[in-house]
Amino acid sequence: MTKTRRQFLKTTTLAAVALGLTATVPALAQTVDTEKLLKPGPLGDKIVGDENAPVTIVEYASLTCGHCATFHKNTYPDLKKDYVETGKVRFIFREFPLDAVAAAGFMLARCQPQDKYFDTVDIMFEQQRSWAFTENPYQSLLDFSKQIGFTQESFEECLTDQGLLDAINAVKDRGANEFGVNSTPTFFINGEKHSGAMTIEEMGKIIDAHL
C-alpha cells in the first residue's frame, strides 16, 4: 500500500505541477478560429451528436468544478434532448482539469471502454462531493472507481500511466494557450466563447441565433 500511495502521490504531484494555471494567460477575443478549435487532441475528442449539425459546442470542463457539475446536472440533459438528439447541435467535451484530483478523475474516465466515457463523467459530476473533496483522495477515488468497474490493480495501472496524463495535460494546455480558456466551464458555440454554468434558456438563445 505504501508503494501504491507513493505512485499515486507521484502521479498527482506531476499533475499538480503540469496543471498550474498562471495569471498571465492572455485573454483572447470572444471568437476563435473554428478550424483550429475543432482539431482534436492527442487522445481524440469525445463527441455526441450529428457531425453535420449546424451548431458545434465545445466545452472545457474540470471534474472538480462545482459550476461544471451544476451545468451537467441541470442544463446538459435538456441540451442533449432538445438540441443534440434533434440534430441541431454537435457537442464536444474536453478535459481541463484544474487540479490533480480532476486529472486523476479524467484518467479513470479515459481508461473506461470508449462507450462508457460520458456515463462515467456524468456519474462523477453527480457524485462529485463523495470523491472530489475529501481528505484522502487516493482512497476516495479508489472506492469510487470500484463502483464503476475498476479493481485496485486496474485503478493503479490507469493512474500511473504517464502518457495518459501527458495527453490530458496537452488538451488543457492547448485550451489555455491557444483559446484563452482560464475558467471552467468554458463553452465555444460555433467559435464564440462563453463562460459559466449557463442555463438551457441562456444557451438556447445563443444556439437558436445560429440556426
UniProtKB/TrEMBL annotation:
It comes from the Bacteria. Coiled coil: none annotated. The keyword Signal applies. Residues 1-29 form the signal peptide. InterPro entries: TAT_signal, TAT_signal_bac_arc, Thioredoxin-like_fold, Thioredoxin-like_sf, Thioredoxin_domain. Residues 17-211 form the Thioredoxin domain. Keywords: Signal. Pfam families: Thioredoxin_4. Belongs to the thioredoxin family. DsbA subfamily. PANTHER family: GLUTATHIONE S-TRANSFERASE KAPPA, THIOREDOXIN-LIKE REDUCTASE RV2466C. May be required for disulfide bond formation in some proteins. This is Thioredoxin domain-containing protein. The lineage of its organism: Bacteria, Pseudomonadati, Pseudomonadota, Alphaproteobacteria, Hyphomicrobiales.
